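Lecture notes, continued. The same structure-token format from the folding unit now serves as the input rather than the output. Read the line below as a description of shape only.
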């Protein structure tokens, strides 16, 4: 991670710990107050948009948890949708393989 990413991450954690909404302006204010000058505004905007409407404390508590509804918000919408699609594909493949076995013949018969 670069210093800019770390600075924005820590600023987001500070705001979350104080139960303050995470916005790009608030992140930038904290970073400037800390005396860190090399952070481009794009980083604060990206972090603010990524964490918008999310409970950062909940994200930290659910890191590495198994599948299920509790992990979906932590993984993000696209990642969760991709994982669900992969599971469905695997189930379809397994069902297809089972149905081939039920026919009484195989590839080398």
């Amino acid at each position: 991670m670069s210093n800019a990413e770390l600075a924005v991450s820590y600023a987001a954690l500070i705001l979350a710990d104080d139960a303050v909404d995470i916005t790009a302006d608030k992140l930038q204010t904290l970073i400037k107050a800390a005396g860190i000058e090399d952070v481009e505004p794009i980083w604060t905007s990206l972090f603010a948009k990524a964490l918008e409407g999310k409970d950062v404390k909940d994200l930290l508590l659910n890191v590495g948890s198994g599948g299920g509804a509790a992990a979906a918000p932590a993984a993000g919408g696209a990642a969760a949708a991709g994982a669900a699609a992969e599971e469905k594909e695997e189930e379809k493949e397994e069902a297809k393989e089972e149905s081939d076995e039920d026919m009484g013949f195989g590839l080398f018969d």
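Point for the exam: Residues 8 and 81 are 27 Å apart (CA to CA).
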